[in-house]
Amino acid sequence: MKFTHQLAALALAGTAILSTASFAQEQVNLTWQMWGDEKDTPLFQSLADLVTAEYPNIKVTPQFSGWTDYWTRLPVLASSGQIADLVAMQSMRMPSFYGVLEPLDPFIAADNFDKSAFESSIISGLSADGVQYALPYDVGPWLMFYNRDKFAEAGLAEPKPDWTFDDFKAAAEKLTSGDNYGYAVQAFDFVAQPVALGAEYFNDANAFDLTNPGYEAAVGKLVDLVAVAKASPVFASGAGAQTGSGRFAAGNAAMVIDGPWSLLTTQASVGFKVGVAPLPRGEGPSRYITAGSGWGISAASQHKDEAFKALKVLTGPKAAEILASAGRALPGRLAEQKFWYDVAAKDIAGARETLQYSFDHSTPFRLNESWNEFENLLTQYLPLALNGDNTTDAVLADIQSQLP
Amino acid sequence: MTLIQDTAVATSAPAARPRRRSGRREGRTAFFFLLPSLLGVLLFLVLPIIASLVLSFTNWKLLGKPAFVGFQNYIRLFTADPQFWTVLRNTLFFTVEYLVLNIIISVGLATWIASLKRGQRWFRVVFFLPTFTPGIAVAIVWMLIFAPGGFFDFIMKSLSLGVPNLLTDQTLAMQAVIIVSLWANVGYNTVLFNAALDMVPPSYLEAAKIDGASAWDRFWKIRLPLISPTLFFGTVMTAITSLQVFDQIYVMTRGGPGNATATLGYAIYQRGFQNFQMGYASSIAWVMFALIMALTALQFWLQRKWVHYDN
């Protein structure tokens, strides 16, 4: 009796193993989660189809959620075991979330995968502590968007790639009159612009050091532009991220700092010509941080080998060409960036020169696991300095005191 | 006599036992009928409450395994967190100002509507409308009105009033939040108090009028004491919801500028879902719970002084 039971159990287990093994060879369904809109589905489905074309046994299904929700859902999905096999990750969020991703280095080594085909700053941006966690699909430095029509009206020469902060300030002041501003400051400008001016917000141990003289001076320059020269409106803490770009699009501000990821949608939605220039530099040489996004493999995935195969296709040359030509992303792959310049951004003045100049002068974007907190605190506290309620140094000291 | 008693005892004794048994059976049936909602309460209310209490003694960061840290979160909250006392002060400031204004305005509106000869229903609907408009939508519309360069700034500029932008001013930002909260929530109390006022027997008011009581006296000495139980209910509920204020702040100010509008509700969200310090956020939630309990208990104690029940 006992023996027959054992035999039956063994037989059952055997068929179970056999069936899963044969199933794995036949068909693997991978889920692929990213931020985006339902209207992006056809575009990303065409990328998913590339995977099936190359590996007929792998089927990839994209799943979308909105940008803000994505980052709230990600840790919840990860801790409840519902995370997808392929996971979208942005370079600035990597320090907080690399724990949900599988290190890619063993796969890259086993496959002799060539990382040098990608822009180097975003390859390092999608790694943490020297370990690669995702492969990039897009990359971009922060840039100065400007309203070419307004520059022409004011008789101003369009900015050169190596323009200085003083040039920028003079232009912003000249373009300001009445309710129209030369520039619209946003919270993130207090990260990208100080770096371009040569300042550091971290100490050597990669911890926040906001009260160092260099960073205070650089933030002070931007604050003066708002509080003293009144060349930019103050942003409100609640809507900080949107109003600057909104004002630029409405023709209410002539310059705004943004990235190539929103360049084409901005140009499509405005009634004037958009130009781009690198961020103004300080006394020293130019220095630009870049950000970008990519896809990684979830640490909880049951099909990591297949997921890496899919990942190679999704971040491969053909996929990069599709996303670049559609204007969806400036590719992280260097060779395919031409499709973005030549097809999607062909009408934007200075796009190619500006971006190439910025990439040539890119500097690693230093981040740590408290980065989100830092950005939120900038949005929350900087209005106090911008409207003159408090000094720049006091506001930075206050933010510093709340960071670990 | 004894015979009757005996039979009565004899008949009642066996009858009592089945009744008890059937009572037990009924209880069991009732239990099974209650089970679905009981499970719901256990799963979605009791368990999360216990979980958050346990979490408040850990350093759980949403990703990874939590470790037990004892009272460290509470010690940090009361001694080390540079923001906590400001957050607590902001919460109490909001609650007091909002509660007082809400009750005064809603009692005023309710009395005014009750005094109307016609159109009472119409006004009740108008003032109740914001109550069933989603809070987030209300806050977004008001944020657009108050945003720098928005409609409010335009009006102030047109009238040549030197009012600074509400959302970027440290002292005015909280007032903007209070204005929005009042707009959204005054209607509920108005309808509640209006209904209570309509229940006041007209004979009392007529008698007082004949005796020469002025309208002012009739309001303070008859109507208000008679609606005081409803007034008490409205006050307690409004105080509880205002201690938990979150959506207006999330949309309009994100706790800023600086920490001018950072309240307990927003601090929980910020620590928990932006900084992923779930353990620490849970400890703030329990402090908020204790605060609400204490203030509600205080209100119940104070009600003996001013609430009049008829019976």
Q: How many structural units, i.e. domains of chain A?
A: 2
Instruction: Based on the coordinates given, report the CATH architecture of the largest domain in chain A.
Output: 3-Layer(aba) Sandwich
Radius of gyration of chain A: 24 Å
Query: What is the succession of H and E elements of chain B?
Result: HHHHHHHHHHHH
Q: Report the biggest beta sheet of chain B as strand number plus sense, adding barrel if it closes.
A: none
Given helix and strand content, the structural type of chain B is: mainly alpha
User: What is the CATH first-level class name of the largest domain in chain B?
Assistant: Mainly Alpha
Instruction: Tell me what portion of residues of chain A adopts beta-strand conformation.
Output: 5-15%
Distance between the termini of chain B: 44 Å
What string, H for helix and E for strand, traces the elements of chain A in order? HEHEHEHHHEEEEHHHHHEHEEHHHHHH
